[in-house]
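Sample intake sheet
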Amino acid sequence: MAIFVVGDLHLSLGGDKPMDVFEGWEGYLPKLEANWRTLISPQDTVILAGDTSWAMKLEDTKTDFAFIQNLPGQKWLLKGNHDYWWTTARKMERYLTENGFDTMHILHNNACMVGDYALCGTRGWPFDDTNAQDAKIMAREAGRLRMSLQAGESALKIAFLHYPPVYPGGCAQPLVDILHEFGVQQCYYGHLHGKSIQPRAAGGSGAKWMVSATSWFRRTVCIFALIKSVIKAFVCSFFQFFCL
């Protein structure tokens, strides 16, 4: 049993917004599928850290979700800033059930329990958006993160966000405070691509923050292994895993 995380798949199999038109994304989907099938088994767990599909409505995700459904492992989806199809957890879970997407689940105000670990998370929010409306969104995201961590009860907690909780010279303080309050030692996030990633992967204040977007290393598709075999925790190197 193993736990993996990958973010920002930006699937558009049922639409007209392929990422291959951007430099560095050419042919990324076959790489993703090949690496996934080579390294992930049906009993493994994969966190999808946001920006999973470009679909605008939930019913338009069917082709993208069918692709994910047919990959090995149990997948838990976080909301990203481009997941416009996202709606209430109840509606999404019903949609997954009705369409036979039984390897896909929603990580929202809850926790995924894997062995001794609780996998928790929420979308997050940019810390440098400071107007009143953004402050309300940040407070709401902080509440959702707290609820998710509380759902993990006494298990060892690993946190997942879409937006980075830390940046050079700043952080999303409400979220960071909650992560510290619950003793979270590892937090993984997506959202960033290409050259914007490296300066923002950082450790500090007793926690390790790591990016999980698909374009981490030389803009090739990567999947980040968090926990391998019998739930033994470690942080892997992209030079060792999945940059094929």
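Comment: The helical segments are 28-39, 62-69, 89-98, 132-151, 173-181. The CA atoms of residues 58 and 184 lie 32 Å apart.
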